[in-house]
Amino acid sequence: MQSDIQERPLTMFAPRRLAHANVFVTDLEESLTFYSAVCGMTEVFREPGIKAIFLSNGSSHHDFAIMGTDNEPRIGKDGHVQIPSGRGTHPGLNHLGWEMQNEKVLVDAYRRALASGVDVKRTTDHGMSHSIYLFDPEQNFLEFYADATADWKGFYAKSQNQLISGHWDPLAQEPSTAPLFNADFQPEFVKEAPVHPRQIARATLIVQDFERARTFYRDVAGLEQIHLDSDRGIAVLAGSNREPNLALFAARDGEVCGLHHLGFELVDDVERERLENDLQRINASPVETIDTSDKSSVVLRSPDGLLLEFFQQKNGGRWSPGAMRSDRDLHLI
């Protein structure tokens, strides 16, 4: 007879794509200068009450967010605890944000999560989106969300500097079936910056328990495994858009587990000479520049040490496993 756990339904959130990353930073203004003037991301919203600044490249309400470190909890609207005491005291990953097709798909997954015993930590109404939060087995925090409005710019304009996030009951009313994301967006970036990102594309996590992490991202997150190299401890997973959104790398001796780097797709090709001149002009130095048969990219390091890769895929824009192997071999990981 199967165990109770085996008989439980799989949660399978099955998001479309990785849509944003949210990180804790030591100095908000210093980090904002780096992510804007160097990395080309556009500031779109501030929420001083929780020490947060949101940046977007036009694909959604944010591709990236920074939150100042603090020993105190971060409280949203009506006492809603967004960051409890003990989290966000040091720079690093807050959460990865996964975009769902619509609210009904999110709520259906929430029902399955409750039925399968998944430990949901928080459900939040952010105004422009509705979200469900949980940890993966390695304690990386994940947000699965559905947009609640197509006019996120209008929402931000009327809400600037205000607290926007409160409690959300996913089961309180019939969920919307409308897809409110914009797949045909026009990229927005800081033209004077050295790199011109189109959107966030990937996150790479180093994990201690490789098989357990793979199982979680398949059965709970509902991502599709599109590449596996068991000998090297590499798994690449995709949302329903079939793009390689997440890489899991088994930890090697001496490696710190957790978020290692984020990848951003570029609007244009990496022009090595122009890029090096622009970086030199603003006194920024790349950690590494990569030019293989699979991709061209530049890797930058944030003031808090986070690695960010800005890349242009070759082979007609198609991803190939060779790109991930070169990341490992070139010490990007």
Total number of strands: 19
Q: Kindly report how far apart the N and C termini lie.
A: 43 Å
Q: Topology as H/E string?
A: HEHEEEEEEHEEEHEEHEEEEHEEEH
Task: Report the CATH C-level class of the largest domain.
Answer: Alpha Beta
Shape: globular
Residue share in β-strands: 25-35%
Low-confidence stretches: 1-6
Based on secondary structure, the structural category is alpha+beta
Give me the CATH superfamily of the largest domain. 2,3-Dihydroxybiphenyl 1,2-Dioxygenase, domain 1
Tell me what you see in this structure.
With 333 residues, the protein is an alpha+beta fold. The protein has helices spanning 4-7, 28-38, 103-115, 152-159, 210-219, 272-281, 321-329, and strands at residues 17-25, 42-47, 52-56, 64-68, 74-75, 81-83, 92-99, 122-125, 129-135, 141-147, 166-167, 197-207, 224-229, 234-238, 244-250, 258-266, 288-291, 295-301, 307-313. The chain has two domains: 17-167, 2,3-Dihydroxybiphenyl 1,2-Dioxygenase, domain 1 (Roll), CATH 3.10.180.10; 197-329, 2,3-Dihydroxybiphenyl 1,2-Dioxygenase, domain 1. It is built from seven helices and 19 strands. The strands form three sheets. Strands 2-3-4-1-7-10-9-8-11 form a nine-stranded mixed β-sheet, with helices on both faces. Strands 13-14-15-12-16-19-18-17 form an eight-stranded mixed β-sheet, sandwiched between helices. The radius of gyration is 19 Å and the shape is globular. The N and C termini lie far apart (43 Å).
